Amino acid sequence: MLPQALAIVPAPILLLVIFTFIIIFLSPLFVLKPAAKPQHNNGSSKKHPPPGPKPLPIIGNLHMLGKFPHRTLQALATKYGPIMSLKLGQVSALVVSSPEVAQLFFKTHDLIFANRPKLQVVETLSYGRKGLVFTEYGGYWRNVRKLCIMQLLSASKIEMFHPLREKELGLLVNALKKASSSREVVDLSDLIGEVVENITCNIILGCNKDDRFDIKGLIHEILHLIGLFNLADFVPILASFDLQGLKRRAKKASKAIGEALEQIINDHEHPSSIESPEHKDFIDILLSYMNQPMDPHDHEERHIVGRTNIKAIVLDLIAGAYDTSKVTIEWGMSELIKNPRTLKKLQDEIEALVGIHRQVEEKDLEKLPYLDMVVKEILRLYPVAPLLVPHESLEDVTINGYFIEKNTRIMVNVWAIGRDPRIWSENSAMFFPERFEDNDVDVKGHDFRLIPFGSGRRGCPGINMGLTTVKIILAQMVHCFSWELPLGMSPEDLDMTEEFGLSIPRRKHLLASPTYRLHTKLD
Ligand code: HEM
């Protein structure tokens, strides 16, 4: 998933207006408080911060980030190196751009960087950070994470929800079969989004449609708000002005989603009002812990499960699962349609295993090594959260001779690491899954050349669920259908521009025409 504190930088004109506002009304305050903090001096006179571009007063380096911060930061890192200092408004930040340095941060010194920054909108939306993604490092976060892994994200729970994925995917295949028989062009971005949303909502909430409220619309608003650039997070003195109206919108969204979740929880507590639930969803599981300690074995911390915790946790998990798998599959299908050789090779692999008379099943996935390479290649070129979710240092530390202050914000440019020709050879920009043939690079956070799920304590706990969803949907779509771009469009014409926000989806929706290729009855 991914919440990105640092998203689209406002248009220069907005920046100019705000800058003027600051200069006119607030500059006296800054005169009393210098923008750059003085260096600590505990006896040593040499506490160098990492190198970085010179910041401007008040806005620091914010103006430099542009529309695609991951690309700008990649270019800046070639000048300043793999540990680079930035000033984002009043916030001290660091950008990590090499596997070696990422390993120092998330393996050698993982504990020091296990915190998350406090963000205004998230504070409102996650009930004062009672969820998981942006929750501060400590006993509460540990308890929630353990509970989520045990009750939702473990191998056995993922397996338990497999009929649900199968059912939703079956509906998608049927819709595509119809489009195939009438030779329609379909909006693949929308269809992939819908199937992932339905799977996520069903697993977590037990429903994907509810006429009483627009649950998906609310989730979209929440993800959008978290993804927006919020000046209040970088120039805290502006927080109370709510110049962009984000706090107001967050409060409104929080109230609406809170009421909806309250209703959904009520329905779960009084099952007669739900139409015969077929399976236990995550809310059922959390309710079975109600008023009990999250982790009965933790004798130091006793955090009791209450309604607010349930709402905050559920929201974070939906946010974590929603966009991530959708965006990965969307880029994957784009690259496969753009590269017919790779698509054919993947179809051949699946066909050799399952034949042409039946669909792929989840039990087949582990016997498909080329699919595994294709997914790694997608995540290398299109990491959903190009700068991961920001981390924050819990104490002062010196790394590679550079002094890093407590409360520094850390961004890891996994997008830049994934495209670095020194790591991936001169063809690093090319979609070429075979590069993983002769090595054992994995995506699970052990090999810092490829960390699309992050690594260490704050690494993604949903890796296995995410990979299962991505693999089964991709495999099914390429096995059941051949794909062509709309009439008159060649693979070179396919626009691969991204959009920066909470995640980096395609700017333009992916449109394509499916042809059913299995030898089963076409209904
Ligand atoms: C392809 C799918 C996915 C990708 C690429 C992905 C990626 C990520 C990334 C990059 C992070 C931040 C790691 C860091 O800051 O170091 C993260 C964190 C997280 N992800 Fe995922 N994710 C995916 C699927 C999921 C799923 C399915 C769930 C849950 C249902 C999930 C739940 C979370 C949570 C709760 C966190 C925050 C962990 C913490 O702060 O302790 N993710 N994910």
UniProtKB/TrEMBL annotation:
Say which domain of life the source belongs to.
Answer: Eukaryota
State its location(s).
Membrane
State where it is primarily located.
Answer: membrane
Keyword field: Heme, Iron, Membrane, Metal-binding, Monooxygenase, Oxidoreductase, Transmembrane, Transmembrane helix
InterPro entries assigned to the protein according to its UniProt record, in alphabetical order: Cyt_P450, Cyt_P450_CS, Cyt_P450_E_grp-I, Cyt_P450_sf
Q: Does the keyword Iron apply?
A: yes
Report the cofactors.
heme
CDD domains cross-referenced by the UniProt entry? CYP71-like
Segments passing through the bilayer: 6-32
Task: Tell me which PANTHER family the record gives.
Answer: CYTOCHROME P450 (PTHR47943:SF9), CYTOCHROME P450 93A3-LIKE (PTHR47943)
- Stated family: Belongs to the cytochrome P450 family.
Put simply, this protein is called Cytochrome P450 CYP736A12-like
Species of origin = Stylosanthes scabra
